[in-house]
Amino acid sequence: MFVESLPVGQPALPDADTVIATLTAVMADGADHPELWAMIPALAGTIPDLADRLTTRADDALPIALLRGLVQAARGDCAAALAALGPLALHHSQSALVQGVVFHIQALADPDNPRYQLAGKVCTAPFEQLDVLEASVHQCCASWLQTSAGDLGTTPWPQVWNSAAAQAVRASVLDGSYRYCNKTACPKIQANGLPEAAAVAARSPFWADVITNARVALDRGPRVVNLAYDRTCNLACPSCRTERYAADDATRARFDRLQDVAILPMLKHADIVFVTGSGDPFASKNFRQLLTALTPQDYPHLRFQIMTNGMLFTPRQWAGFPNLHGRVAMLKISIDAATGPTHEALRLGARWDTMYENMRFAGQLARSGVIDQFDLVFTVQHANFREMGAAVDLAKAVGATGIYFARMTNWGTFSASDYADRAVFVPGHRDHPAFLAAMADARLRDPMVMLGDLAEFAPDRAGQGRIFVH
Questions:
Q1: Does domain 223-457 have CATH number 3.40.50.300?
Q2: Whole-prediction pTM value?
Q3: pLDDT tens digits, residue range 140-165?
Q4: Which residues of the chain have a pLDDT value below 70?
């Protein structure tokens, strides 16, 4: 942080190039810096040629483009700034820096919207959640928080849980900067769902200590563990991969060691295990083995969140995993359509008739109380946005307790231009007006609907009563 090196208000001001160099040096860490963006109006006002120097710079480096947008917004033209940054935002859809600048300019354009007022609000995820990927660990979904706390394959889990990076993420929540978070993608931020610090402090002595003492090194482990290290899946959905994947023997042996050394011991202290955010739990030999090992005798307090594409969620499969019976807090089945042709086009290898029967079976389990909650998850893109309303009808028909809609994320499977063609939720897309009309569908106002990071497009901000928790 080089705020002190920006001498706004001092008699001898630096030239524009010095200020630009200082700002770009800070931005090199890839994090969001809202405290600097707040200084841009003063800098632009006291250094008259700042805007001109940014405009005439020969390089089109990312920090320069972001600073141009910030200065343009500081001069009152937020709409033009957002339009200019639109292609960059698509190309860097998971960048905390780029999305943070966009979020800041959106806040300038809509200053009374509480969604943009993060100071004094606390996201609890970095204090209680750990997402385990193949070679990194995150305190939230990696598409919303790219900063890694470490690697359980090389470092004991207690050290990862309280690593310097993990503590820095927690500090950014407590200071209100949320500098490591993807603010335009986080469903809690987008739905204005972050609780006030005082309300969090009142939950327990643990939270009172965290809030009062700004505690970032924690003496208890994660309460929610998301296992997302095995990408093995029976489908090849273009939204997350380019081909069907199954872990080879060497990779499976490495995952076995990870589970024995880190995962199983860590889950002794957890309340919820989420399987899986990376593939399908019933297609993965490692995850099937793990589900068998997590007995109620050895893990009496542990409950499950299961996420599956549904193709393998049959009565026979369910009967083969008695450890899950009566212990599933949430079952999520991911769908990308409300009709067979669209689903099979977007979920390569899926069969709609099988999917529908398996969803109905899940609904029966929910109605009988064998599982607590059953939600559908619908990833919105150009090929399916017209079926959002019908998906709500589908959720009711199969007995789901909720349905969550989310923007499609570019996991590296698309080029920037391909992603732009699919990202119908981005203003400027040729079918964005039709998307807005679809968002006005009365069925999306149903209490069972969670709009997450699409809430801003609802004409009355419908669907914010429930917020998807992963």
A1: no
A2: 0.91
A3: 999 899 999 999 999 999 999 999 99
A4: 1-13, 58-60, 241-242, 461-470
The number of beta carbons lying within 10 Å of the beta carbon of residue 206 is: 15
How far does CA 195 lie from the centroid of its chain? Answer: 17
Place of tokens 């008695």: 322
Q: What is the pLDDT of residue 60?
A: 63
Under 8 Å between Cβ of 95 and 51: no
Q: Report phi then psi at 309, rounded to 5.
A: -80, -5
The HSE-up count of residue 119 (CA atoms within 13 Å, CB side) is 2
Domain assignments of the chain as residue spans, ordered by start: 3-112, 223-457
Closest CA to 172 of 67, 40, 33, 36: 33
| Residue-by-residue DSSP string for 285-331 | HHHHHHHHH--TTT-TT-EEEEEE-STT--HHHHHT-GGGTTTEEEE
Length of the chain, in residues: 470
Positive or negative: CA dihedral 267, 270, 276, 281: positive
Whether 306 contacts 323, CB under 8 Å: no
CA distance 230 to 307: 13
